[in-house]
Each structure stands twice: as C-alpha cells, then as structure tokens.
Amino acid sequence: MTLHIETHGSGPIPLVMLHGWAMHGGIFAPLVEALSDHCTMHVVDLPGHGFSRDCGLSLQPAECARAIADATPPAIWLGWSLGGLIALQAALDFPDEVRGLAMLCATPRFVSDSDWPQGRDPALVHRLASDLETDYHATIERFLALEVMGSPDPRAELRKLRAEVFARGEPDLRVLQEGIRVLDETDLRADLPRLQAGRSWWSAGRLDRLVHPSAMEWSAQASAGEYHLIAHAGHAPFLSHAQAVAQALLPWLEAHA
C-alpha cells in the first residue's frame, strides 16, 4: 500500500503538510481552509498513521522524507511536531525538491541534553515508549493532554484532538514505537546552517509546553530563518489560531514560493 496523500486548495503555491505523532493529515483541516485560496496542499498521512496505516514504510526521517518527496511535486514543506523532523530532513537531503521549510512547533531536537535545556525531559519520552507496550490508548491520551498544556482553552482543544486521533483508524503500534525513537534519538541541530538563508520559517505557540518557543527561536537564528510567535497559542496553533498562523505564514510563502 502506498502513502495516503490528499490534495486540497487551488492556489499557486505548492505546499506539502506533515502532521505529528499519532495523528493524521486531517488534523490540518482549519489551516487547509485558511490557505485554500493561496496554496495547493498535499496533505500526507505519515506511515502507520491514518489512511497510511498499512503502507509498511519506515518513519525514520531520511527514508520517510524520500518516500514523500517521490510522491509529491517540488514544494514548500510544512511540518508540525514530529512531522517537522521529517520535513527538516527532507530540506537537508533534497534542496531541489523542498523549496522552503516551514516548521510549526517543531525543532531539530525534541529531548533535552546538557547543551540543549530547551528540550523535553528524556524520561517523558522513555515513559511513553514503555507505556505503549501495556496501555496503548491511555498512552496516546496522555500525549494529547501534553499537547494541549498551555492552550488558552485546553478542554476544547483536547476534545478536538480526541475526536480526530482515531478518525481514520488507529495508528499502527509498531510505527508509534518507531516515532518515539525518532523523537528520542534525532538531533539535526548541527545541520541547520546547511539550510539556505531565508528559506526557513519557524513558528511557535507562546504557551506551548511540549516544544518550547526558545528552542524554535534558537533554531531560526541557527538557520538564518524567519521566526514568529503566536501569542495565545499552545502546541497546536492551527486548531486554536488557524487564521493567525495563516496570516504569519502567507507573506513568507508568497515571497519564497
């Protein structure tokens, strides 16, 4: 089975969109609507997720990025959370096909280290990995709760995520475990200077408690990219502040399409 990729919008700007861990491309619906007059969007269900549950591809960033690049036209790539790591790898590996990189609440390294205090505690990631073995649904529920921490309306946002997470079927356990390893092991910080100056856009939610805004600001500086802060948003600003995200993103898209 191949990757499931939906095409939306009729605008002149080609845009590939990659979702986060345990979700699917349908989660982007509010942002897709906001961009539909400006962009033609290729919205991907990552391997093991949504309608790509049985495609059998790896979620490892290099392999996954290659498969998506083969299945989509040259475009700007937008990645949210885990999807950002794959989009960033694609921008590094295939600069002729990835014409620009938009990172939405996503950084080159998810977990913290002695020289990366902006990351999340590795113990959180390790616990998610072990809990998946014993309580699949409760582990996803806990991760959704982490995603809405800091949101101005966490209950409403959590309801939206709960409604969406299994809307296209349950993610494959094997790929969820692989995604946890990607979050734990991937570190692309040293590669950021390889991105062409001005060709990356980094947007953080000021209230995000999963990917700290300071990590995104640092990444934008390291890549000579553009940084935006969505003032009242958490980790999923395209749900709570889709118009604000679109307004921040569109001038950059139009300048770099």
Describe this structure in words.
The protein is of the alpha/beta class. It has one domain: Rossmann fold. The chain has helices at residues 29-35, 61-71, 82-93, 122-134, 136-148, 154-165, 173-185, 213-222, 237-240, 242-256, and strands at residues 4-8, 13-18, 39-45, 75-80, 98-104, 200-205, 226-230. The protein has a 7-stranded mixed beta sheet, sandwiched between helices. The model has no long low-confidence stretch (mean pLDDT 94).
Number of helices: 10
Adjacency order of strands in the biggest sheet: 1-3-2-4-5-6-7
Q: What's the CATH superfamily, by name? A: Alpha/Beta hydrolase fold, catalytic domain
- Number of DSSP E strands: 7
Shape: globular
CATH architecture: 3-Layer(aba) Sandwich
Measured between the Cα atoms of the first and last residue, the distance is: 31 Å
How is this fold's topology laid out?
Blueprint: E1 4-8, E2 13-18, H1 29-35, E3 39-45, H2 61-71, E4 75-80, H3 82-93, E5 98-104, H4 122-134, H5 136-148, H6 154-165, H7 173-185, E6 200-205, H8 213-222, E7 226-230, H9 237-240, H10 242-256
Parallel strand pairs: 2-3, 2-4, 4-5, 5-6, 6-7
Antiparallel strand pairs: 1-3
Helix pairs in contact: 1-10, 2-3, 4-5, 4-7, 5-6
